[in-house]
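Journal club prep, notes for RB
We'll compare a predicted complex against what the paper describes. Inputs for the zinc ion case:
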Amino acid sequence: MSTRSGADRELVIRGAHVLDPSSGLDGVMDVRISGGRVAEVGEDLHGVRELDASGLHLFPGFVDVHAHWRTPGREEEEDLESGSAAAAAGGFTGVVMMPNTDPVLDRPALVSGLVRRAERESRVRAYVAAALHAGLAGSELTEMRLLKEAGALCVSDDGPGTQNADVLRSGMLYARSAGLAVLLHCEDRSLAKGVVHDGVAAALAGVPATPASAEDAATATALVLAAETGARVHITHVSTALSAALVGFFKGRAGVTADTTPHHLTLTDDLVRTLEGLYRVNPPLRPEGDRREVIEALRDGTLDFVATDHAPHAAQRKELPLQEAAPGFLGHETAFAALYTELVLGESLPLSRLVEAMSCAPGRWVGGLGSLAVGAPADIALADLEEEWTVERESLSSRSHNSPYLGRRMRGRIVGTIVGGELVHDRMGAKLGVRT
Ligand SMILES: [Zn+2]
């Protein structure tokens, strides 16, 4: 995050409906910020700088543990400036960047270099996931202790995964001794030969498909090894009914947490019948039955939180037939609105559970974020729950445009985002904390 001139100044946000399940706050209140931290939450607070937020909802800033900002290596698709602008536009104040960059983040100098660059160039708090294996190749373990010293928050091989159970087990044991969590994209590549979910939609579309077992078998393996090794394992983007149930079985038997994505919660594989490359993603969009089970697993806490897997791609990698397109969706800017519209308004998910799943739980996982407790970092998302808007290419802050929600009407929009007491996204015209 950039150094900001106003970081030490006091700010009072007045009249918003404050909702923070982690602190038990739920009602119209004022929030005083001082020294970049929450100083007081109460009634009738005043200060030299005041921001009128009446009519808005105020949440702890959202935290996204799975993002691809394409830096280093593919800055034409995203970089620290555009990625963090997209995050801020979506109410995210903390983001974890995945290591599948070019070069791969598998050496301490690369990790510390990106950490330092993010401090200068990112509008939000940006954390680095380092590689679990050199080159994400799934054979030679990285120097995890040194990667941690260099500033890595966790380790992951993300997309390529670790295809050998014995190698993954060693990685978990080493990560545990180094004090790092392991974030796992669970996919058995011997089963994953297609580009979409193997179901009715794939059959009608006539495209090569991958069975759900590609995710489920790898998830089961990871959970068994997590229970045995005692490693802190996080399963990312859970998308099937069976994988969600497996996570539920292992809760309490292993140090396991899990997330799912906005797109797996709101979209289904029916979209692949368009044959448009835009709708290719990994893990693939699933049938309605899986979507329903994943929603219920998020509702009851089996799935701890939401992560977007924000994955920008240039048009020439997405505007292709399904089989040729790169997998991945943008996520930051539409996450809250998509989930508020489809789950809170559409499925009666309590708004407090959505805030818990976007702020409090991922904030705890990262450490010290996602709370408006006195003394916590003043990281805040301000939302207008009444605003209706349509997702358009021109309105996106990302350098890429591969949103599966383009043209969709949504309800609820982030209008202001505050990091460390300073406004880093402003659709209110409040003009506070303008960077100098
Ligand atoms: Zn992934």
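Talking point for the session: The radius of gyration is 21 Å.
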